[in-house]
Amino acid sequence: MKKLFLLPLVFVLAWAGSIQAQEETRTLKNRIKSVSNRMFIKSGRAELTILPLTSISLNDAFFQKYGLGAGFAYHISEAFAVQALLTYTPLNLDTGNATYYGSKEQTDIPYAGKRTYLVGADFCWSPVYGKVSLVAEYVMHFDTYVMGGIGGIGGELKDDSNFGFAGSFGLGLRLFFNRTFALKLELKDYMVFNDKVSIKDLPAKSDVQHQLMFNLGLSIFLGEGSLED
To answer: What is the pTM of this model?
Structure first.
């Protein structure tokens, strides 16, 4: 009876050992499955992006800004898309440089004040799609894109509200977890054209300022999409 009881156990252990031996003898090429098609479809789908306080200013000497917001994009094809972005900035951390040229009453530097919101609309082109292998077990899909468009920056300068129109351009990257979710990274420069700068008693003059932003968000793709020929 004991032998009959042990026979299934011996069979299971032998089978598990055989599987492990086969796994160890597999080459690296055999362990990584070949992926020839896209894991995801963008064409004909909408993309909702959420930024939870991860819109960060990179070149602001006066106030370090942390914003939250949302974006919406529609993918006309796998290569082309249009998108819009709105961010609100609840955190403006004073760097201590806003009064470098004098007191707040004497200094009038645009967007040295607290920026409250930022809007933009862009046309995007995705020329590169690829995939990378992580620790020889998992394949991560990604695509990159360039974008350009128009936008605006709203903020506070002393006690007044201000708005500046801007042109924008930037680079983006998506890392796809699956067909629905992706991590979205953007580096975007807003060029504000209609600022007025005056320092102390000097006359005001027109100026072009650059607001460089880094955006990190979670993208959710909606709809089934459409296969291209």
So the answer is: 0.72
